[in-house]
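Reply to thread "Modeling small-molecule complexes from scratch"

Following up on the discussion above, here's a worked example others can learn from. I took a protein sequence and the SMILES for fe (ii) ion and predicted the complex. Inputs first:
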Amino acid sequence: MKKEILIVEDDDETIKHIVMHIESEFNVLFHFAKSVEMAIEKLAQKNNIALVIAKYIIDGNVGSSIYAYIKNKELNIPFILLTNKYPAKDPDMSGFMVSGKLNTYLKYPIKENLLLDSVSPVIKLKRPSIQEGYRRVSGVNVELFVMEEIPIFMLDHENNYIHVKNPEIEETQTDDFYFVTIKDYKNISSKINERLTKKIKCKTLPTSERIDYQFDSVKKIHNSLRDLGLTVEEIELGKAVYESSVGIIKKNKRMSGLLGNLIRYQNYTYELSMMTNYLAIAIAGHTKWSSNHSMKKLSISSIFQDISIQEDHLARITSLESRQYKELSKHDKDIVSGHPYESMKLIDEVDGIDDVSNNIRDIIISHHERPTGNGFPKGTTMENISGMSCIFIMAHEFSHRLLCDRLSIEVLQKIQVDFERDYSHGHFRIPYQAFIDSFHQRKN
Ligand SMILES: [Fe+2]
């Protein structure tokens, strides 16, 4: 039985483009809706829908209500959201990337490879002829290729591709399938993409501004680290380890999406991940945990610690006793208090880190624990916190406080007093000494 896909989109050319790409590789049945109401009606009527591909803003209504409907009815249907800006602040989209393994979002104009990569894990069975150098085109779309005078082929009963002439094509039915070479298919696809790009009125920040902004963040962190007394070598090492961790994580498509979202829209979470990475690596360099292996663990943990929280104002909350936490809704409280578990679970999806994943899980789950036992989620006391986690916890708290307060002598003095009180003894004694050593070596 063919799998069924519901496409919720109001631009005809975009619909045609999506359908053309999917049917060139998969045997599926399409349903269409041009409004949120129609989409919800289809979902209520058809119980075989395997995938929803929906525009975020459609027909004046926010398309996230379709996702909210699926979530509330527990339909468990994978969802591809079409949007140029990921709606991190929309409460209906809360947990979108985290709760559904196959959920993802794509930007306009929809890129063929990204679309097929997102559809493929849901539909699974690909048409076999792809390896043979031809792409399939349905009778509905073949005209696009005929107009460009591209050679069109049909399969004969012995599975040979036979070149067909235009008059023959005109006589055939729209539900027949034709074939074109992969090269011709790509050319036409790029032309359609160019046309669609011109149509899009992109309201999001231009790419160049985004890159500048990211660059500013990195520069700001590097300057702060220099001011704190880290050496150029320590900063270079931190940068190299961070980049290598990002490379590992980006191999997983969903993690790459979460990370991209964090870099683009979550200023605090992004800067916290970078700052924690640099500080944890600098501290570890003064301890027995200075191997590449240990640094990799600390670095990946830095990036993953808050990856399950998609909103900066929630990631900023570091105490369940704080006023900010107490004023949250039950839903947001659960996100904050549960995020060490949720971030930890996502580690299982990253390939190539099996050798270090247990330590990373331990570090992530403990990143809000504190030596006095007033942290969360477990309220663990210091005897039960591992050495690597001690390093990470100090790097995390220091980074958080530096990002929330402006870097000044007064702020640093206050942090120094608090750190000495909380971290200079017991299990934290050796990591604390390394922390002090990291910041007292600046030679002016
Ligand atoms: Fe956190």
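What I'd highlight from this example: Confidence is low (pLDDT under 50) at residues 201-211. The pocket of fe (ii) ion is lined by residues 305-306, 339, 367-368 (CB under 6 Å). Questions welcome below.
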